[in-house]
Amino acid sequence: MSETKEINEVIKELKSLSDPRAVEGMAKFGIRGEKRLGVSIPELRKMAKRINKDHKLALKLWSRKIPETMILASMVDDPEKVTEQQMEGWVKDINSWDVCDQLCMNLFKKVPFIIKKIKDWSRRDGEFVKRTAYSLIACLAWHDKESSDEKFINFIPIIKSGVTDERNFVKKAVNWALRNIGKRNLNLNKVVIKAAKEIKKMDSKAARWIASDAICELTSEKIQKRLAKRG
Questions:
Q1: What is the pLDDT of residues 13-48, one digit of tens each?
Q2: Could you count the other beta carbons within 10 Å of the beta carbon of residue 97?
Q3: 129-153, pLDDT tens digit by residue?
Q4: I want to staple 110 with a disulfide (CB 3.0 to 4.6 A). Which of 59, 79, 94, 226 is the partner?
């Protein structure tokens, strides 16, 4: 099968799975993006499993700029073949929070130089570029079970630098990053609660919301019991 035929077959399958009603439902949750087809994440995962890792196909899928092809690209790309140039190009194309978060969860968190990109993108102005930095911190805090507490403590200054951003998609990602670090273990829970109390004192509506929400969850009986069981 030629590369052109292969990409066309994938697009054809995606279009056969399209659901206009799902597109309407997604819009209610702020999930937008031009040319959206309304294909569910489980369906995209099934396709990705059949395709397996294919870097060239991933690049072609992303270039179509359809939210579903972009998400599928993140699922089939090989993190070992991803370059900084590719990441810079892709992050600038993001125009919906679900594409951002899927890209972080499926691909970007696995590249070897991700800490550098988090630092770079947290200082950028673009809403989704900045969201990517904090979504990546949240993803690493959730999935990276092996790293030391120090790695995540080092993210706290980066989080503090983003808490005054009033833009919805940024502040929610900053909050997500803070909460996920605080849910790793009891030590980080205490570190994050302390940081959140400092953030709450800032003269910023976004900072106060981020801090209050994080403190509420991280001090809850449910989270404290879960962390106590882990020891």
A1: 999 998 877 666 666 656 565 688 889 999 999 999
A2: 21
A3: 999 999 999 999 999 999 999 999 9
A4: 79
The helix (H) or strand (E) run that includes residue 13 is: helix 3-16
Place of tokens 């609660």: 193
Q: What's the token pair of residue 18? A: 């399209």
Q: Specify the DSSP class assigned to residue 154.
A: T
CA distance 216 to 129: 28
Domain positions in the chain = 1-82, 113-231
Length of the chain: 231
CA distances from 229 to 122, 152, 186, 224, 226 (A): 34, 21, 10, 9, 5
Pick 113-231's CATH classification: 1.10.240, 3.80.10, 1.10.3470, 1.25.40: 1.25.40
